[in-house]
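> forwarded from #structure-qc
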């Protein structure tokens, strides 16, 4: 048992397996303990069926998925649950769920009531779906042995949340094999990541939506083609919002460049990336400009006050808004 319960009322117990722990059950336990009915619960780590039968809720062990009795295991051969098939297609994600995904499916909206109580209901639903896509699904996939790509990775990724949880397990040659104590640290780690992710969505990502929407709706005032979007200030996360707004407007792929001021008072012109293709831009800045700086770039383009164009063509800079805008105009003409 990880935690002792001090209350005089009957002890609520969350059951999970003992021994080596993983990210999914650590996160499942953390999420449950944010809910009023489980916040004072003890965590029982065991594989003993009699002890698990005494638990009020069991995750990642027991070979049973039954929401009616609060059993949330995913290891049994019969389990094929995904967000898509367990929500009748309302959540279109086809990755097999782990114990974390199962807890999120059944308790996630109530979890967000605790983590973002002052937010609008539609914002909570947006965050519910986004948090699964950009946080939970990775944990489900890794625990079920599903690779992110069918291609051979070009380098090792060793700093994932799951990897950091794995490294909290006592090493084979540690003299102190305190799995239960280390599991507490694992729940704290995954919990802090989850809370920080929700905080970022609520306090940074969602507010940026209004800024991007306003700029997107005014794009034809900036350039008649609608291919250039202007933000008065930089720093807000705009890419995903832009892709979604284009999709809603039926003009996917239309915007080629965004311009915005930076923290130094200069302006940037940035090529919009191809969605889902990493560092590939829809229309990179002209090849002849790439890697050229300052006066040489101004001479080459005929645009005063140029600062630089990146060697890949994904971004460039100018000292003025007018200069950045002219760089975007010329780039459109030179495509």
């Amino acid at each position: 048992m990880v935690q002792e319960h001090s209350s005089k009322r009957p002890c609520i117990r969350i059951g999970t397996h003992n021994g080596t722990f993983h990210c999914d059950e650590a996160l499942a336990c953390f999420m449950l303990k944010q809910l009023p009915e489980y916040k004072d619960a003890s965590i029982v780590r065991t594989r003993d069926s009699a002890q698990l039968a005494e638990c009020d809720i069991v995750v990642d062990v027991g070979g049973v998925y039954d929401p009616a009795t609060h059993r949330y295991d995913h290891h049994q051969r019969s389990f094929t649950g995904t967000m898509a098939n367990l929500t009748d297609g309302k959540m279109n994600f086809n990755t097999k769920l782990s114990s974390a995904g199962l807890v999120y499916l059944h308790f996630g909206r109530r979890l967000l009531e605790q983590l973002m109580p002052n937010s609008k209901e539609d914002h909570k639903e947006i965050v519910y779906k986004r948090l699964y896509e950009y946080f939970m699904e990775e944990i489900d996939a890794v625990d079920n042995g599903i690779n992110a790509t069918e291609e051979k990775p070009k380098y090792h990724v060793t700093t994932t949340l799951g990897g950091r949880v794995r490294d909290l397990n006592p090493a084979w040659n540690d003299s102190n094999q305190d799995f239960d104590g280390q599991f507490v640290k694992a729940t704290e780690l995954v919990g802090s990541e989850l809370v920080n992710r929700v905080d970022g969505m609520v306090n940074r990502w969602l507010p940026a939506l209004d800024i991007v929407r306003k700029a997107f709706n005014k794009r034809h005032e900036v350039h008649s083609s609608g291919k250039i979007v202007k933000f008065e200030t930089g720093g807000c996360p705009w890419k995903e919002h832009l892709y979604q707004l284009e999709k809603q407007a039926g003009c996917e792929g239309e915007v080629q460049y965004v311009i915005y001021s930076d923290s130094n008072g200069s302006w940037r012109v940035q090529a919009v990336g191809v969605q889902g293709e990493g560092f590939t831009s829809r229309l990179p800045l002209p090849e002849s400009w790439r890697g050229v700086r300052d006066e040489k770039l101004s001479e080459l383009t005929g645009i005063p006050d140029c600062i630089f164009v990146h060697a890949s063509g994904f971004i460039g800079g100018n000292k003025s808004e007018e200069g950045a805008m002219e760089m975007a105009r010329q780039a459109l003409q030179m495509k």
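QC bot note: The chain has eleven helices and ten strands. Strands lie at 13-16, 42-45, 57-59, 65-66, 71-72, 228-231, 257-261, 267-271, 306-309, 315-318.
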